[in-house]
Each structure stands twice: as C-alpha cells, then as structure tokens.
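input
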Amino acid sequence: MLIDSHCHLDFPELSERLDECLAHMAEQGVGRALCVAVNLEDFPRVLALARRDPRLRASVGVHPEYRDVQEPDVETLVGLADDSLIVAIGETGLDYYRSPAAELDWQRERFRVHIRAAREVAKPLIVHTRSSAADTVRILAEEGAQAVGGVMHCFTEDWATAQAAIELGFCISFSGIVTFRNAAALREVARQVPDDALLVETDSPYLAPVPYRGRTNEPAYVRHVAECLAEVRGTSLEHITAVTTANFERLFGS
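output
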C-alpha cells in the first residue's frame, strides 16, 4: 500500500470530484493520503475531509507565501492540532522565490511560530523550502525542530541540504518533479537518500508526474513517483512501497 504524504484534496480541482479521486487511489494501490492545510480560513475543509474518510489524515498550518490571511500564533495552532486526525503542523517553511530575503522577516517569524507549536503538541512539521534552503535548515536547528522531526516536502534542493535535514530527523519527500526529464540532478539526490528517510507525495493538484505532466495531479499518481524512485535506486516498486509506508507511519503515527 502506497501513501501520498502530501496532497490538497480540499482544492476545487479535486474536491469537486472527490469520490472519483478516492476510487482512483484504490485502483492504484494508494491506501492513504495526508491532506495538507495552507491557511487557517480553509482549515475546516481539510479537517472535514479527514473526518469523512478513514483513508485520509490532515495537517494544520499556513503556507509561507500567503500574505493576506489570518496570521497564526502558537496558541491557535496548538488548539487546532488537538485532534487525533491532525497528524502534523504545516505546510510551513520559507519561500524566497518571488521576493528578496531582506523583505521576508515575517516569513521567518511565521516559520518559528509553527516550529514552536509543533514542539508543544509533539507533532511533526511539513516544511516547504524554495530558494531558501540555508535559512530553512538554520531556523529548524535554532528552534529545536529535531525534537519533533518532520518532512521536507516536494524536495528539489541539493544533497547537502538533504543531509542537513536528515541529520535533524527529517524525511525527504519526492513529488512528480523527480520524474521530469530535466530533473537528473534531483534524481541523483533521490538515489542517495537512505531508505529510512524516504517519502513519496503528489502535492496534487499540482506537479503531475510523467506521463501525466501538465494535467491535474491526484493522489493515485503517486505510484508513478514511486516507480521512478525504484528505477533510480535500482530496487523494486514493492520495496519503495514498503519503506515509504513504514516511514510515514513512524513519522505521523497513523
């Protein structure tokens, strides 16, 4: 049984055909999925998905790029995470892609808030990093994120960044990007990640893997990510399925 460790089933591209997406999961041997929150305003929809279907779990957090949304504080995140269906804090992290780092103190403070909440509730972090790897790893270490661990989701950084995250107790999750023709460097990173730090995801509805690139992504397509990793790592799909499922269950306890 494969597990999609990061998807957004509450987004309209997927929520409007939820039953179809869940059926496709079953057809492709994808037994569970983690629905990841990106803001507090829409968090009730994410939690409702987890309450609707036993195959789904949820997280609570505010995406690092979102400006005009309710700003989280530790108390709010801790309160919302007080539910057995909420297995992680995030999506959080840093994203400097569209703005210079000098203008993004608010992102760094928001990231610290999430880490502090995660430590208080003893639940792992779901971390987004883009054009910000050094600061992301530094803040994780400064805030003691190794106490809870987590996942570097949709990983696209270099091996040095992966190593630093693994040393802090984080898993490295690969999305459909690893299947793209121009992602040879990322596939080399994927080859080196230890079995016990490996996860797979879709980040659907975005980043559909080959052969569906350019279409709406969905959790069932995580099988193609796993198949790519099996090829890159010289192993079987069954082995990738076994280790990524074990890692998910160890990390998220579900």
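quick obs: The chain has one domain: 2-252.
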